[in-house]
Design a protein that fits this description.
Order of helices and strands: EHEHHHEHHHEHEEEE
Structural class: alpha+beta
Strand order of the largest sheet: 1-2-4-6
Radius of gyration: 20 Å
Strand content: 15-25%
Distance between the termini: 46 Å
Largest sheet: 4 strands, mixed
Length: 232
Protein backbone atom coordinates (compact mmCIF):
# COMPACT_ATOMS: atom_id res chain seq x y z
CA UNK A 1 0.00 0.00 0.00
CA UNK A 2 1.35 3.40 -0.95
CA UNK A 3 1.91 5.95 1.79
CA UNK A 4 2.98 9.52 2.45
CA UNK A 5 6.67 10.33 2.82
CA UNK A 6 7.73 12.69 5.61
CA UNK A 7 11.40 13.65 5.65
CA UNK A 8 11.60 14.16 9.41
CA UNK A 9 9.76 10.91 10.24
CA UNK A 10 12.30 8.10 9.99
CA UNK A 11 9.54 5.48 10.06
CA UNK A 12 8.19 6.78 6.75
CA UNK A 13 11.49 6.30 4.89
CA UNK A 14 11.79 3.40 2.43
CA UNK A 15 13.05 0.14 3.84
CA UNK A 16 16.59 -0.76 2.83
CA UNK A 17 17.31 2.60 1.23
CA UNK A 18 20.88 2.15 -0.06
CA UNK A 19 23.54 3.68 2.16
CA UNK A 20 25.57 4.96 -0.75
CA UNK A 21 26.27 8.49 -1.94
CA UNK A 22 25.13 9.25 -5.49
CA UNK A 23 25.55 12.39 -7.57
CA UNK A 24 22.56 14.72 -8.12
CA UNK A 25 22.70 14.22 -11.90
CA UNK A 26 23.66 10.56 -11.89
CA UNK A 27 21.80 7.60 -13.38
CA UNK A 28 21.73 6.10 -9.89
CA UNK A 29 19.85 9.15 -8.57
CA UNK A 30 17.42 8.89 -11.48
CA UNK A 31 16.75 5.23 -10.72
CA UNK A 32 16.32 5.91 -7.00
CA UNK A 33 13.87 8.69 -7.86
CA UNK A 34 11.82 6.23 -9.93
CA UNK A 35 11.87 3.75 -7.05
CA UNK A 36 10.71 6.49 -4.67
CA UNK A 37 7.80 7.36 -7.00
CA UNK A 38 6.69 3.72 -6.98
CA UNK A 39 6.62 3.52 -3.20
CA UNK A 40 4.78 6.75 -2.33
CA UNK A 41 1.56 8.43 -3.32
CA UNK A 42 2.14 11.75 -1.58
CA UNK A 43 4.74 13.75 0.30
CA UNK A 44 4.46 16.00 3.35
CA UNK A 45 5.69 19.54 2.85
CA UNK A 46 5.48 22.95 4.49
CA UNK A 47 4.79 26.54 3.48
CA UNK A 48 5.72 29.62 5.52
CA UNK A 49 3.81 32.90 5.39
CA UNK A 50 2.34 35.68 7.50
CA UNK A 51 -1.40 35.74 6.69
CA UNK A 52 -3.95 38.23 7.92
CA UNK A 53 -6.76 35.67 7.69
CA UNK A 54 -5.81 32.04 8.23
CA UNK A 55 -9.34 30.78 7.61
CA UNK A 56 -9.17 31.96 4.00
CA UNK A 57 -6.43 29.40 3.33
CA UNK A 58 -8.71 26.57 4.42
CA UNK A 59 -11.43 27.92 2.13
CA UNK A 60 -9.40 28.96 -0.92
CA UNK A 61 -6.11 27.12 -0.50
CA UNK A 62 -2.66 28.55 -1.17
CA UNK A 63 -2.74 30.70 -4.28
CA UNK A 64 0.35 31.83 -6.21
CA UNK A 65 1.20 35.47 -5.60
CA UNK A 66 0.11 37.93 -8.27
CA UNK A 67 2.58 40.76 -8.65
CA UNK A 68 -0.15 43.34 -9.25
CA UNK A 69 -1.87 42.39 -5.99
CA UNK A 70 1.40 42.53 -4.06
CA UNK A 71 2.10 46.03 -5.37
CA UNK A 72 -1.39 47.17 -4.37
CA UNK A 73 -0.81 45.78 -0.89
CA UNK A 74 2.55 47.56 -0.65
CA UNK A 75 0.91 50.84 -1.71
CA UNK A 76 -1.74 50.38 0.98
CA UNK A 77 0.86 49.61 3.66
CA UNK A 78 3.43 52.29 2.91
CA UNK A 79 1.53 55.04 1.07
CA UNK A 80 -1.72 54.84 2.99
CA UNK A 81 -0.94 57.72 5.30
CA UNK A 82 1.17 55.97 7.92
CA UNK A 83 4.35 57.50 6.49
CA UNK A 84 3.87 61.04 5.23
CA UNK A 85 7.16 61.02 3.34
CA UNK A 86 6.23 58.01 1.16
CA UNK A 87 4.01 58.48 -1.89
CA UNK A 88 2.36 55.91 -4.12
CA UNK A 89 4.88 56.85 -6.80
CA UNK A 90 7.70 55.94 -4.40
CA UNK A 91 6.24 52.46 -3.92
CA UNK A 92 5.69 51.94 -7.64
CA UNK A 93 9.23 53.08 -8.39
CA UNK A 94 10.68 50.72 -5.77
CA UNK A 95 8.69 47.86 -7.33
CA UNK A 96 9.84 48.74 -10.86
CA UNK A 97 13.46 48.49 -9.76
CA UNK A 98 13.07 44.84 -8.69
CA UNK A 99 14.31 42.18 -11.12
CA UNK A 100 11.93 39.58 -12.51
CA UNK A 101 8.35 39.02 -11.42
CA UNK A 102 6.56 37.55 -8.42
CA UNK A 103 3.85 35.69 -10.36
CA UNK A 104 2.65 32.06 -10.56
CA UNK A 105 4.98 30.37 -8.07
CA UNK A 106 4.35 28.64 -4.75
CA UNK A 107 7.34 27.52 -2.68
CA UNK A 108 7.17 24.53 -0.35
CA UNK A 109 9.88 22.80 1.67
CA UNK A 110 10.23 19.25 2.97
CA UNK A 111 11.31 20.24 6.47
CA UNK A 112 9.66 22.94 8.57
CA UNK A 113 12.73 23.00 10.81
CA UNK A 114 14.65 24.44 7.87
CA UNK A 115 12.06 27.22 7.56
CA UNK A 116 12.59 28.24 11.16
CA UNK A 117 16.38 28.15 10.91
CA UNK A 118 17.13 29.38 7.40
CA UNK A 119 14.04 31.12 5.97
CA UNK A 120 12.03 32.62 8.80
CA UNK A 121 11.88 35.97 6.99
CA UNK A 122 8.71 34.63 5.34
CA UNK A 123 7.25 34.20 8.83
CA UNK A 124 8.42 37.51 10.27
CA UNK A 125 7.96 39.78 7.24
CA UNK A 126 5.54 37.98 4.93
CA UNK A 127 5.90 38.38 1.17
CA UNK A 128 9.51 38.47 -0.01
CA UNK A 129 8.45 40.78 -2.84
CA UNK A 130 6.85 43.32 -0.49
CA UNK A 131 9.88 43.04 1.79
CA UNK A 132 12.08 43.93 -1.18
CA UNK A 133 9.90 46.97 -1.89
CA UNK A 134 10.26 48.01 1.75
CA UNK A 135 14.03 47.62 1.45
CA UNK A 136 14.01 49.93 -1.58
CA UNK A 137 12.08 52.54 0.37
CA UNK A 138 14.55 52.13 3.23
CA UNK A 139 17.48 52.87 0.93
CA UNK A 140 15.79 56.04 -0.31
CA UNK A 141 14.68 57.47 3.02
CA UNK A 142 17.22 56.02 5.46
CA UNK A 143 14.70 54.27 7.69
CA UNK A 144 14.18 50.51 8.01
CA UNK A 145 10.62 50.13 6.75
CA UNK A 146 10.90 46.34 6.60
CA UNK A 147 10.37 46.17 10.36
CA UNK A 148 6.94 47.75 9.93
CA UNK A 149 5.80 44.58 8.12
CA UNK A 150 5.91 42.72 11.43
CA UNK A 151 2.76 44.62 12.42
CA UNK A 152 0.66 42.67 9.92
CA UNK A 153 -0.53 39.08 10.11
CA UNK A 154 0.84 36.22 12.19
CA UNK A 155 3.74 33.83 11.49
CA UNK A 156 2.22 30.62 10.17
CA UNK A 157 3.60 27.32 8.91
CA UNK A 158 1.12 25.22 6.95
CA UNK A 159 1.63 21.46 6.80
CA UNK A 160 0.64 20.10 3.39
CA UNK A 161 0.20 16.69 1.83
CA UNK A 162 1.10 17.04 -1.84
CA UNK A 163 0.51 14.41 -4.55
CA UNK A 164 3.83 12.94 -5.58
CA UNK A 165 2.86 13.47 -9.22
CA UNK A 166 3.33 17.22 -8.62
CA UNK A 167 7.09 16.72 -8.26
CA UNK A 168 9.10 16.80 -11.47
CA UNK A 169 11.62 14.15 -12.46
CA UNK A 170 14.30 16.66 -11.53
CA UNK A 171 12.72 17.13 -8.07
CA UNK A 172 12.70 13.36 -7.53
CA UNK A 173 16.29 12.98 -8.70
CA UNK A 174 17.53 15.70 -6.34
CA UNK A 175 15.44 14.28 -3.50
CA UNK A 176 16.97 10.84 -4.10
CA UNK A 177 20.41 12.45 -4.00
CA UNK A 178 19.65 14.17 -0.68
CA UNK A 179 18.28 10.93 0.73
CA UNK A 180 21.41 9.09 -0.36
CA UNK A 181 23.55 11.66 1.44
CA UNK A 182 21.46 11.26 4.58
CA UNK A 183 21.63 7.47 4.46
CA UNK A 184 25.36 7.51 3.70
CA UNK A 185 26.03 9.83 6.65
CA UNK A 186 23.60 8.12 9.04
CA UNK A 187 21.49 11.30 9.12
CA UNK A 188 18.08 9.96 8.12
CA UNK A 189 15.29 12.32 9.21
CA UNK A 190 17.71 15.03 10.31
CA UNK A 191 17.18 18.61 9.13
CA UNK A 192 17.32 19.22 5.38
CA UNK A 193 17.01 22.44 3.38
CA UNK A 194 15.02 21.26 0.36
CA UNK A 195 12.68 23.52 -1.63
CA UNK A 196 10.21 22.59 -4.37
CA UNK A 197 8.86 25.29 -6.70
CA UNK A 198 5.27 24.74 -7.83
CA UNK A 199 3.77 26.66 -10.73
CA UNK A 200 0.28 26.27 -9.33
CA UNK A 201 -1.80 26.89 -6.26
CA UNK A 202 -2.52 24.32 -3.56
CA UNK A 203 -6.19 23.36 -3.00
CA UNK A 204 -7.49 23.61 0.58
CA UNK A 205 -8.00 19.84 0.83
CA UNK A 206 -4.21 19.43 0.70
CA UNK A 207 -3.73 21.56 3.83
CA UNK A 208 -3.45 19.26 6.84
CA UNK A 209 -2.81 21.72 9.68
CA UNK A 210 -0.91 24.84 10.71
CA UNK A 211 1.27 26.11 13.56
CA UNK A 212 2.34 29.54 14.81
CA UNK A 213 6.05 29.73 15.74
CA UNK A 214 6.52 31.99 18.74
CA UNK A 215 10.22 32.83 18.88
CA UNK A 216 12.72 32.89 16.02
CA UNK A 217 16.20 34.06 15.16
CA UNK A 218 15.51 36.76 12.54
CA UNK A 219 17.57 35.71 9.50
CA UNK A 220 17.64 39.31 8.22
CA UNK A 221 18.81 41.05 11.39
CA UNK A 222 20.34 38.18 13.38
CA UNK A 223 18.25 39.22 16.39
CA UNK A 224 16.16 36.70 18.34
CA UNK A 225 12.60 37.98 18.42
CA UNK A 226 8.99 37.07 19.00
CA UNK A 227 6.32 36.82 16.29
CA UNK A 228 5.52 40.55 16.53
CA UNK A 229 9.17 41.54 16.19
CA UNK A 230 9.75 42.28 19.87
CA UNK A 231 13.06 41.09 21.30
CA UNK A 232 12.88 37.65 22.87
Amino acid sequence: MQKAFCWKDASSWPENWPGIEVGPESQEAHELGLRFAQEYESILAYHACRPLDISSYYKEGLRPARQSDLIKTAVKIFAGGQFSVISEEDVLRAASELPGTADTKTFIVLDDRALLEFANHYLLYGSEYITAIAAGLSRKYGHDYTQYLKNFGRPTVFELEIPLTWLTKSDLRVLAWQMSLAAFNDAIARLVDFTVTLHRGIPPEYIKSHTHPKVMQDTLTGIRCRENGELA
